Structure formats: structure tokens, C-alpha cells
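Example 3.
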Amino acid sequence: MSTPALDRTAVTEAPILDVLAERWSTRIFDAQATIDEAALSSALEAARWAPTAANTQPWRVIVARRGSEQHATIVASLAGFNAAWAGDAAALVVFVAETTRDDQPMPWALYDTGQAAAHFTVQAHADGLSTHQMGGFDRDAISAAFGLGDAFTPISVMAVGELGDIRTASEELQQRENAPRTRRPIAESLIVNA
Amino acid sequence: MSTPALDRTAVTEAPILDVLAERWSTRIFDAQATIDEAALSSALEAARWAPTAANTQPWRVIVARRGSEQHATIVASLAGFNAAWAGDAAALVVFVAETTRDDQPMPWALYDTGQAAAHFTVQAHADGLSTHQMGGFDRDAISAAFGLGDAFTPISVMAVGELGDIRTASEELQQRENAPRTRRPIAESLIVNA
């Protein structure tokens, strides 16, 4: 069955930048396209300039392009339905938090790693790359495969690449792809508004 | 002593969006300006559309405008030098992570709260607001003052407002404001590049 791709732009309560409204997390990647290296470099650079607590920059990345042994290692670590589609992405990027430094806890490591990942996604989308972050993967397997040690914890795997053709995707992917984009109203996120 | 404001645009290794290159964390806010409500709404909306693990949206915010009791409560919680300048900000926004839901841990709560905060800062800067996130504050005091309970943890306080005049700022603020912007090279953030 052939399903048309729907407009995925967020319906917002207040105006936001096009790149933020149009960024969304596809599961349909072009399995033939190689990664746009210039766009990947820019996305990494955007992550680099994310703010971090006292400029500690407590994050790292593992970048693996499709076809590499490392890409296959990451695909093998993915849980559930993620394994069905994410291998198509031209690159998989593991975001790693530096949770301790010099044996001291880094309380904002996860938070700041999230900021770096967010900057990455925004720049990627501006340059025509799609992204989808996954929490469902085997952290221990990634940690062991890449020798991360105790100070570094893999937090997310981001699929990065060109959007694939929804018309040739599986029915489950088509359905998920065209499901409504939802967020709770902003009022429900405001504990206090004073 | 009067110091001119320097151009704070990041010197990048690869091109990134102007809004990402130009976003930076001032400590000099206009202590008279009230918050641009439209820009604040847009920044919150940008946070709303940040990606989160399985769309769990495990974050909340406390928004407090200068002059409110809640703004004063947050200023009183700030540690060290933060207390010297952040009270000038027209709004203080506490980013709160939902670290447990239905008594189950939310492993991506901090990471996703960081993503929401990053989206907030990007939209804010696009609309002419400056932001500065602080980790140095009394979490217990904020948690108690706002009745957050065990499931919610305040992670950062973000000063939000219009840029102030560096020429009338204290010498320490002037020096910090014009300190070079630095990040380690992106190559040092790449554990693997395959």
C-alpha cells in the first residue's frame, strides 16, 4: 500500500523558527544515500558550541557510517523496533555523557549531553539531514565494544541521514511515520508562571 | 572603566546557523527591561517541541518574572557569583526534570530536559533575548519552595532577558563578558569516527 508523506511541521501555540517546527524524528531513512559529510561536520560543530555547565563540555560522540564495522556494532545493540529501521541511516551517532571526571560526579553531564544532541539535530535539519534519537539500545554492549570505561556512559543513539521514500516502506513504518505529532499543551509544563 | 562589548559570535570549524553561532551566555542583563512576553512564549513553545524519549516529555519549567516573589525566591537560591548578576534578568526559568513517573525511573529525564532547554535558548536568541543557564543553585531550596516532591528535580536556572550595557557593569562582569569563547576542537569529542 502506498501512503503519501504528510507535512510533519509542528502546529504551534506560538511562532517558532521554521527549523525547530520542521525538525521531527523520522524512521524512514534512505538506505542507499551516504552521509552528507559537510552537513555532518556542521551538525557536530553545532553540538560543539552548545552551552555546558561551567563550559565543562561533558559529552562525546561515536560516529559510525553505514558499511563500517562500528555501524554494524551499533545496529546490533538496538532494542526492539529500532533495529528494524535505524540500520538504514547513513550514520549512527552515539551521544556519550562524561558522568565522572577525576573521580568526581558531573551532575550536569546528561543534561548537557542532551543540549549538545539538540544542537546537532537543529543544525542537521537545517542542512537537510533527518535525525531520530533512540534510548532503546544495550548500553553495556556499546560501552564494552567501544571501551568507554566507567567515566563515560552512552545515553542515546541518533540515526542521521536522508529521508527515505515512505511509499516503499513497510506498512508499520508508514503508519508510525504519519501518526499525528503531539505534545501536551505548554500550560501543562508550567509548574509556576509568575 | 568602560569596556566595549566584543563580537561574541563563535569562531567555528564548520559553518553553523547564525542563531547557533551567535547564541552565548551573557552575565549582563538589563535590570529595567521587562520580559518580552511574545518571545518568552515562543521560547517555551520551542522547548515544547523538543524531542524526548518515546515522547515522554519528562521536563517542566518554573517561570518567574522580576518583581515576583518567586523570582526573589530563585535569586535567593543562587550560589556564588550567580547571585551577583542573575537577579537583573527579567525572568528566571527553572528547568525541572521528571526523574520518576509512576515510581519508575525516567532514564532520559535529564538528557531530555537539556534538549528542551537548548531549544528554549535557540528560540530566545532568535527573538533577541539573551540566556544564561546556571547549575549553581540550592536544589533543595527550590524543590521545597515550589513543592516539587520526589518525582521532580530542578536541574538548571536560566536567566532570560535583554542584554544589558557592559559599559556600566562591574569590572569583574566586564572581564568575564569579554573573555574568549572557547571549546575543545571537535576532533577531541570524537571517541570514534568510522
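Strands of chain A lie at 59-65, 91-98, 100-101, 104-105, 130-134, 152-161, 190-193. The first helix of chain A runs from residue 18 to 22.
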